[in-house]
Design brief:
alpha/beta; single chain; elongated
Length: 467
C-alpha cells in the first residue's frame, strides 16, 4: 500500500479557499487555488492530500446535497478535474472525504421524502418513522447523526443506498482519478458496507486507499484485510501534546508501546494508523502546546513513530487556531499563499528522511530510554535500525543504556547538510570550484559513536541510523 510510505496533507477546502460558510448558490472557481499550491506540496514532499468535503452541501460540507457535483462555492466538476491533473503532475495523490453515514436536509432523496412522505421511493434510504415528527415539522421523525438533525442518517443496510454510494465512488475514480477515501465517522458505519466498499474499490482501482475517522475503541475492528487500510490514531494524538505539556513522556511512550510494542499483547503491530498533531476538528498544535520550544519536538515524534504522518494545512509553519465551543471557523482559515519558515524546513527534512527509511515506514517499535523529559525508542526492520531520541528539557541530558552502542549516522544532520549543499552554488564558499577531496569531506555523512551513552542537547530531535 503506497500510503504507508507517504506523508499526507489535510485541507478543509471551504475554509482554505475562502468560500462562504453557508451555501449562497453562487458558482465561484475557488477550488483552483488547491492546484496553485501543488508545486509547494511537491517541494515539501507530500505524497497525497486529504480534502475534506468538496461536494454540494447545505453549509460545512458534511451536510451533502449531491455527491456527484462539486460545491458551487468551490467551482465545477471541470475545475476539480483540472486540480486533480495538476496535483498528479506534481506527484501528489488525492484522497477525498467520503461522507457516507449521513447527508444534509437538502439532499435530493431526502427532499423527495419531505414532499411525498410515505409515497417516496426513497423513504427507506433513511431511518424514518411516519408516526412521529421532527424538530423541523417534517411530518415524520428521522434519525440524525448523534443528535444533529441537520445531518440525516443514511440507511446503509439498504442495498439501493449502498449501490448509489458505490456508483458515486466509481464516478469520482473515473472522472477525477482519485486515489483514496477518508471515511467520515467510520466508527458509525455499517461493517458490511465497509467490506463491500473495500472489495469494490480493490476491483476497479487496485491500491485505492481507505482510511477511517475513528475516535475511540479497538481500531482492529475496522482496520483489517477486509475493511480499511488505516484509521486516525486519536490515542497518540492526545498523547503527543499531553506528554509535552505535562513534561511526562511516559504517557506517549506507554501509548506507543501499547499499540506497537514487542509484546504479544500489543494491539496494532504491523498496522499503519494515521498519525497527526492536529486537524480540522481540534485546536492547532501551536496553540495547545504550553512551551513553543516543543513544537518541533511534536513533529519529531510524529515522523519517528509507527504509522502514517498527516499534516494539517498551515500547521507546518506553526499557524495557531483554537477550537471554539460552538464552531470550528478559527481552525479552517484561508491563506493567500504558503508561509514556510524554519519549522517547515525541519518538517521537509523529516518527510524526506522517513520516505527513504524502511525502519521508519515499516519497522517494529521498542522503547529504549524513558524519563519524564526524554524518550529514546527504536524502529527496526531486517535491513535497518533507527533510534529516535527526543529531549523535551531546556537542559542537555546524557542518556545511559547498555543498548546505546556502536556507530550511527545522524540522519537529520546529514539531511541538513544535503539541503544546504543543494541550495549553494558551486564554489560559493571559496569563489572557486571545490576539489574532489573537499567535496568528499563536505558530503561525508555525520556520524555518532555511542558507548553506553547518548548526549541529547536541549529541545532536540535525533534520528540515528545504525551503521
Amino acid at each position: 500500500m503506497w500510503a504507508y510510505n507517504e506523508t499526507f496533507y489535510q485541507i478543509y477546502p471551504i475554509g482554505f479557499c475562502g468560500a462562504p460558510v453557508h451555501n449562497d448558490g453562487v458558482t465561484a472557481h475557488r477550488i483552483l487555488k488547491i492546484g496553485e499550491w501543488s508545486e509547494y506540496l511537491q517541494e515539501l514532499g507530500i505524497g497525497s492530500i486529504i480534502l475534506n468535503p468538496i461536494f454540494e452541501s447545505d453549509n460545512h460540507g458534511y451536510d451533502t446535497r449531491d455527491f456527484k457535483k462539486i460545491d458551487c462555492r468551490l467551482g465545477t466538476n471541470e475545475d476539480f478535474k483540472e486540480v486533480c491533473q495538476t496535483l498528479h503532475d506534481h506527484n501528489v495523490k488525492i484522497m477525498l472525504d467520503g461522507v457516507f453515514n449521513h447527508v444534509g436536509r437538502g439532499f435530493w432523496a431526502f427532499k423527495d421524502v419531505q414532499e411525498k412522505k410515505w409515497d417516496s421511493p426513497y423513504k427507506d434510504w433513511f431511518i424514518i418513522n411516519f408516526d412521529g415528527n421532527s424538530g423541523y415539522n417534517d411530518g415524520f421523525w428521522y434519525e440524525g447523526w448523534e443528535g444533529h438533525f441537520e445531518l440525516v442518517k443514511l440507511n446503509l443496510q439498504n442495498p439501493a443506498v449502498v449501490d448509489y454510494l458505490l456508483d458515486c465512488v466509481k464516478m469520482w475514480i473515473e472522472e477525477f482519478g482519485i486515489d483514496g477515501l477518508r471515511l467520515d465517522v467510520a466508527y458509525s458505519l455499517d461493517h458490511n458496507f465497509m467490506r463491500r466498499l473495500r472489495s469494490f474499490c480493490d476491483e476497479i482501482k487496485p491500491g485505492f486507499a481507505l482510511i477511517g475517522e475513528v475516535l475511540f475503541g479497538d481500531y482492529n475492528l475496522i482496520v483489517n484485510d477486509e475493511m480499511l487500510h488505516s484509521c486516525t490514531n486519536y490515542e497518540c494524538y492526545k498523547g503527543i501534546f499531553s506528554s509535552l505539556n505535562s513534561m511526562n513522556l511516559f504517557e506517549i511512550a506507554h501509548s506507543l508501546n501499547r499499540q506497537y510494542g514487542p509484546e504479544q499483547w500489543c494491539l496494532y503491530r504491523g498496522k499503519h494508523l494515521m498519525n497527526f498533531v492536529d486537524n480540522h476538528d481540534v485546536t492547532r498544535i501551536a496553540s495547545i502546546l504550553t512551551n513553543k520550544n516543543h513544537l518541533p519536538l511534536a513533529y519529531g515524534i510524529l515522523f519517528g513513530m509507527p504509522g502514517i504522518p498527516c499534516i494539517y494545512y498551515g500547521s507546518e509553519w506553526g499557524e495557531e487556531g483554537e477550537k471554539a465551543p460552538d464552531n470550528d471557523y478559527a481552525l479552517r482559515p484561508c491563506f493567500e499563499e504558503p508561509k514556510p519558515n524554519k519549522l517547515t524546513d525541519l518538517i521537509k527534512l523529516l518527510i524526506e528522511i522517513r520516505r527513504k527509511s524502511d525502519a521508519l515506514c515499516n519497522g517494529i517499535y521498542r522503547n529504549v530510554v524513558i524519563t519524564n523529559h526524554q524518550l529514546i525508542f527504536e524502529r527496526k526492520t531486517d535491513s535497518e535500525r533507527v533510534l529516535v531520541a527526543i529531549n523535551a528539557s531546556d537542559s542537555e541530558y546524557t542518556a545511559g543504556n547498555g543498548e546505546l552502542q556502536g556507530t550511527y549516522k545522524d540522519l537529520i544532520a546529514e539531511a541538513e547538510k544535503e539541503a544546504k549543499a543543494g541550495t549553494a552554488e558551486p564554489g560559493e564558499k571559496t569563489g572557486e570550484p571545490e576539489s574532489e577531496e573537499s567535496q568528499q569531506t563536505e558530503t561525508a555523512p555525520e556520524t555518532v559513536t555511542l558507548n553506553d551513552q547518548l548526549v541529547m542537547p536541549p529541545y532536540s530531535i535525533q534520528y540515528l541510523k545504525a551503521l
